Amino acid sequence: MKALRIILSLAVIAGVFYLLGCGKPVPLGGDYEIHVLADSTIWKSAESILRTTFERTEYNPQPEKWYTLVKQDPHNYKRYKNLLFLSTLDSQDELSQAINNSLSPQALEKVKQGEFMFASTDAYAQNQKVLYLIAPDLQTLKQKLAENSNEIFEQFESYWQDFHKKILYSMKEQKDVEKHLLQTYGWMVRLPVDYRMVVQSARDRFVMFHRKLPLRWISVFWEEATDPSVITKEYCVEKRNQWAKSFYEKEHVDEKFQPVVTEEVNFLERRALLLKGLWSNDEKVAGGPFWMYCFFDEKTERIYFIDMHIFAPDLKRSKMHYLRQMNIIAHTFKTNLEIKPEDL
Questions:
Q1: Would you tell me how many other CB atoms lie within 10 Å of the CB of residue 1?
Q2: What CA–CA distance (Å, rounded) separates 25 from 12?
Q3: Burial profile 268-303: b = 16 or more Cβ within 10 angstroms, e = fewer
Q4: Nearest CA to 289 among 316, 273, 317, 309?
Q5: pLDDT tens digits, residue range 31-63?
Q6: pLDDT > 90 fraction of the chain, expressed in percent and rounded
Q7: Which parts of the chain fold into alpha helices (H)?
Q8: Interatomic CA distance for residues 42 and 140, integer angstroms
Q9: pLDDT value at position 183?
């Protein structure tokens, strides 16, 4: 299959055409599909580890995977948005050898020295993420896949976040609202043009932003505090219910169908508790998923809650897309000790 070597070496030719002004094609495939090129023997050994790595499932309440792996035909792969190449140096099959030959001699030497992950972007198409995972032999490859699961996942997840952050803020950003938040409440988030601030209360220490189609809300509420040890699942759920009674039209956290899941995370260099669960409103017969960060900010001596929730009963498989976009906005949070209004 000499064609495989020719196909994989076309990256150089594509680069020449790009420099000549021809550009690169728009990629095919969804944001959440990762197309895998690997010999059948390697794929059979690595498939379970990789599906565990990428096909993590959230229940919103329908199950949704973060990413879906697709075993790709090597004759038709260059146009896909997310590409993952798997190989070992000792493999004799033509696909593995073609993948190995596509790397530089320096990169192949690094594989022999213990490195196994090589990434690039826009290799064959615009806005494309390409990841090579190569080891000297199959046993070493499986070991490295298992040991570096989170790092492998983050290669695609970080690229997704960067791409969608550019989309969110590609149009006019609401700098005037951001300055108002800093001056009035002592914190801000970067606000895309299509979100409206619909509630603000200094007395209740609560601000809410809203966007339609589908209906989604981002809220920030806070309280003065000096003891971060109070932050537990029970504490955060109780606080959310308190504010929701007043500002979410009496909705509440609902664990009838599935429990709230919690995880300790690093949120902008702060130790935070991330809660994921379901909300419901008995009066309106409505419900949906929510994500919420709860963290102590030592410099301002406040406990902050950043809550994101959505109501989209017609969306069976893409609620998480909008939660993840709101999560990007949440991660633009800053206090007035980190940024001043005049610096925006």
A1: 13
A2: 15
A3: eebebbbbbbbbbbeeeeebbbbbbbbbbbeebebb
A4: 309
A5: 999 999 999 999 999 999 999 999 999 999 999
A6: 86
A7: 2-19, 40-54, 94-101, 105-112, 138-147, 149-168, 175-185, 233-247, 319-330
A8: 12
A9: 97
Angle at 158 between CA 96 and CA 11, to 5 degrees: 40
Q: Which amino acid is at 203?
A: R
Q: ∠ at Cα 119 (118, 122), nearest 5°?
A: 145
Determine the pLDDT at residue 76.
Answer: 85
Q: What is the mean pLDDT of the chain?
A: 92
Amino acid at 217: W
Token digits for 16?
């020449």
CB 94 within 8 A of CB 4: yes
What distance in Å separates the CA atoms of residue 258 and residue 62, rounded to the nearest whole number? 11
**Cβ atoms within 10 Å, residue 168:** 20
What does DSSP say about strands 270-281 and 252-253: parallel, antiparallel, or unpaired?
antiparallel
Alpha carbon distance 278, 256 (integer Å): 9
Residue-level length of the chain: 344
Specify the residue for token string 């537990």. 232
Beta strand residue intervals within 194-301, DSSP E:
196-201, 206-211, 215-224, 252-253, 261-267, 270-281, 286-297
250 phi and psi angles, rounded to 5 deg: 70, 25
Q: Angle CA(155)–CA(157)–CA(161) in degrees, nearest 5?
A: 120
Quote the CA–CA distance of 10 and 4 in Å, as a whole number: 10
Q: What token pair was written down for 202? A: 């200094």
Identify whether the C-beta of residue 269 lies closer than 8 Å to the C-beta of residue 341.
Answer: no
